[in-house]
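We were asked to recover a plausible sequence for a given structure. The inputs and outputs are reproduced exactly as logged, with field labels preserved.

PROBLEM: sequence recovery
POSITIONS: 134
GIVEN STRUCTURE:
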């Protein structure tokens, strides 16, 4: 039987006080492609198969209680992505975004992971199976 979700992907919706400004941050620091709509009140950012929708919301508590998790193909790719973004975090205008200093192995569930927060406070976790090598 066909599963309508085969071939689909999830695109989380993140709150941001200024979606257009948030999209530019994702583009400049994280290498996402951006599209901004509705006079900057809505934006979509994409990199690879990850898409994030950014909607206008002034309540920071909503963003700070929102998260998504993206699985990366292998630990080598995870480590490369982390190194790229850790370097980007050294630019003054990266803040108030932040990134964990290094990926950590989580043997309990078999993943190596790191987390990144965008300037609005949204959390994105990235992980790869410790078993999967490039």
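RECOVERED SEQUENCE:
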């Amino acid at each position: 039987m066909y599963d309508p979700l085969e071939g689909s992907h999830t695109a989380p919706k993140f709150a941001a006080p200024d979606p257009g400004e948030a999209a530019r941050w994702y583009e400049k620091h994280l290498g996402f492609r951006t599209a901004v709509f509705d006079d900057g009140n809505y934006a979509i950012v994409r990199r690879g198969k990850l898409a994030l929708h950014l909607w206008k919301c002034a309540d920071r508590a909503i963003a700070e209680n929102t998260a998504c998790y993206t699985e990366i193909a292998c630990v080598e790719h995870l480590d490369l992505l982390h190194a790229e973004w850790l370097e980007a975090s050294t630019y003054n205008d990266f803040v108030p975004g932040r990134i964990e200093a290094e990926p950590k192995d989580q043997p309990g569930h078999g993943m190596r992971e790191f987390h990144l927060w965008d300037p609005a406070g949204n959390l994105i976790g990235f992980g790869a199976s410790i078993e999967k090598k490039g």
